[in-house]
Amino acid sequence: MPPALVTFTTNVATALAAGKAAGVISGGVATLTQGVLKTIFLKKFMTTAALLLAGAAVVVGGSLVLAQTESPAGHEVKSQKPAKAAEVNDAPPRPQADKPPHIAEKPDMMGRMASGLPSRATEDGSVVVKSFFAKMATYPDIRFRDFFDPRYLKKHGLTDREIAFEIADHQGIASLRVADDKLTVIVVLRFKGGEKEVFVMRCAVLEDRIYISPEKAPDPNTGIIKPWILRMKP
User: 163-166 and 209-212: which strand pairing?
Assistant: First the structure.
């Protein structure tokens, strides 16, 4: 198994264990993540192998052409001198890092349609997580505040204040799996260019309702919430 896959699976188990308030995270979470990533890795490996073979053919062909067109012995082919590099002091200043893609929502935002949120706890976390990612592209159709655990918002002083949370500019859900605890969800999203990314989401139950439960406090510099526990390109 690829070392990167083993490392990522270990990180998932460690992160989930650290973020759980009580009890022990089931080993099924790590096993489920491993299976999802292994499937993606095999597909990418086959594509990469095909590209490498094609590239090798181009290199060999180019070498043969170069051997046939070499200059006669004793005659050097002088290349043009590279243009003088710009002075370091003339380089433009580097722009500051931008904030990640996010949505900022005021406390009185109601949405253009009924959301049905928060979901009842009779559903597993996949229902909430699927709706969360699917509705990113249609904001402000629904009120996103209702996705988040009220205890998390209260803890960070956001109950009656504007919230800002990071989003993924994706092109659809490739796959979605829920762990045996019914609250941990592993999502694979499709992005432009055929790339895929894996997201691990954690949910929590409060008063017979189920919510997304972020692991970390809002970023101290930007105030933006990271809804997922882990995000990684396989």
Answer: unpaired
